[in-house]
Design a protein that fits this description.
Elements (H helix, E strand, L loop, with lengths): L2 H16 L2 H19 L7 H28 L3 H33 L20 H8 L4 H6 L3 H21 L3 H47 L2 H5 L1 H28 L3 H18 L2 H15 L4 H14 L2 H17 L6 H18 L5 H12 L6 H5 L3 H26 L9 H4 L16
Helix pairs in contact: 2-8, 2-11, 3-7, 3-8, 3-12, 3-13, 4-10, 4-13, 4-14, 4-15, 4-18, 7-8, 7-13, 10-14, 10-18, 11-12, 11-18, 12-13, 12-18, 13-18, 14-15, 14-16, 14-18, 15-16
InterPro entries: Na-dicarboxylate_symporter, Na-dicarboxylate_symporter_CS, Na:dicarbo_symporter_sf
Protein name: Dicarboxylate/amino acid:cation symporter
Organism: Natrinema thermotolerans
């Protein structure tokens, strides 16, 4: 065999790898969707390949939270942690409130559901956790069990407390062996973080196959009929989310606060956005979100290590828009007019229950039962709209992940925790500059 023949597979692989991963995943998404539409339920045979991709991402969630949080804690003094944490939580609360208001505004403007016939359905009423249950759930009885069970808020709490304690001991100790041991521990954390990023790279390479399989199986099994039947609901929610992303994230936060090109931000966040749309899970997307923050957006670990894991759990901007629109849709279906008082109840309920239900599987439908009950609408509507839950979940999750990165970027700007001269920012014109925005090169 000649040298040329031997090197052909290598050259082919290198050419394939030279294509940015986001474009390869996008092609896989389109091809998988087409195959699912053509093959129908037979495409479900590909489910194991897609499930493997999801498992690989889920495998990385807790290790990434532990390593990135601990790595970030080394750079945080208690006072700075309070500043980063306070700003992050305040921004998440603010953007969720804005999202709910946008959802109610577009719902009242377009009035979806007036021409839809309600044929009934079955729904299971679910109660959200109480405030005390949410608060107590943050503090685990068994830290290791919390990590094993994937309890993200509890894991974040344990890691922050432990990391902060290490930082305090390191600053106050006069014993050299203890100081050296803590420095060595943090060096191990840094090495582990780099190793995890290498694993994320490998998982995303497989993601081309995983996304293809996920979309083929999902479209083949669920079909496109439900999306067409409830197109008005999907369309209005998509409009609300588009407005929120364009005005709040790109306009106010990227241009107004960061002073950067929106295209640069989107270029830096695109990997996480596509992954979120594909797998419908903010937590599952977390490995990719962290990589985008580190590599593309150049956010400091002390900021993203705290903000992104927290955002994957409590940031529900997309769900807020989705629930606000769906409640108006439901009221129109049954001929009920929601007054100002009812809509204020919807607004308050969406905001207050977002943290308590964020980590629950099927959280969107659970939130909907609570809100419908709060304004006296029939819970059977949940069964009616459940047919488009897959597409609504994808849209909302994409919004949530984009919001996580936007908030982390702004907090980074306010705490000197982002480098706006490198990564995607380096090739993008500043919003206040000459106006010639450009998109940075891909991976």
């Amino acid at each position: 065999m000649s040298t040329t023949q031997e090197s052909l597979p290598r050259r082919t692989w290198e050419q394939y790898r030279s294509i940015p991963i986001i474009y390869r995943i996008a092609v896989a998404f389109v091809l998988g969707t087409a195959l699912g539409a053509i093959a129908g339920e037979r495409a479900a045979v590909l489910s194991p390949l897609g499930d493997l991709f999801l498992r690989l991402l889920e495998m990385l969630i807790i290790p990434l939270i532990v390593f990135t949080l601990l790595g970030g804690m080394r750079k945080l003094t208690p006072s700075k942690l309070g500043k980063v944490g306070g700003l992050t939580v305040a921004l998440y609360a603010a953007t969720t409130t804005i999202a709910a208001l946008i959802g109610l505004a577009v719902a009242n403007l377009f009035d979806p559901g007036t021409a839809v016939e309600f044929t009934g359905g079955e729904a299971q009423q679910a109660e959200p956790p109480s405030v005390s249950e949410v608060a107590l759930g943050i503090v685990p009885e068994n830290p290791l069990a919390a990590m094993v069970n994937g309890e993200i808020l509890a894991t974040i709490f344990v890691v922050i407390v432990f990391g902060l304690a290490l930082t305090i001991v390191r600053e106050s100790t006069t014993e050299e062996p203890i100081a050296d041991a803590i420095d060595g521990f943090f060096a191990f954390i840094d090495a582990g973080t780099q190793a995890l990023f290498t694993i994320v790279w490998g998982v995303m390479e497989y993601g081309v196959v995983g996304v293809f399989a996920l979309m083929a199986a999902a479209i083949g099994t669920e079909g496109l009929g439900a999306i067409v039947q409830l197109g008005a609901l999907v369309g209005v929610i998509a409009i609300g989310i588009a407005i929120h992303m364009t005005v709040t994230y790109l306009g106010v936060m990227t241009v107004g606060i960061l002073g950067q090109s929106p295209l640069s931000f989107l270029n830096g966040a695109k990997d996480a956005m596509v992954t979120a749309f594909t797998i419908r899970s903010s937590s599952g997307t977390l490995p990719v979100t962290i990589t985008d923050a580190e590599t593309n957006l150049r956010i400091d670990e002390s900021v993203y290590g705290f903000g992104l894991p927290l955002g994957a759990t409590i940031n529900m901007d997309g769900a807020a828009i989705r629930q606000a629109v769906t409640v108006v849709f439901a009221a129109n279906m049954v001929g009920v007019s929601l007054g100002l008082g009812d809509q204020l109840i919807v607004l308050a309920t969406v905001i207050l229950i977002s943290i308590g239900t964020a980590g629950v599987p099927g959280a969107g439908l659970i939130m909907l039962t609570v809100i419908l009950n709060a304004v006296g609408l029939p819970l059977e509507i949940v069964g009616f709209v459940a047919g488009v839950d897959p597409i609504l979940g994808r849209i909302a999750t994409t919004n949530n992940v984009t919001g996580d990165l936007a908030v982390a970027s702004v907090v980074g700007k306010w705490t000197d925790g982002i480098d706006l001269t490198e990564g995607v920012w380096a090739d993008g014109s500043q919003a206040s500059g000459d106006g010639e925005d450009s998109v940075a090169a891909g991976d």
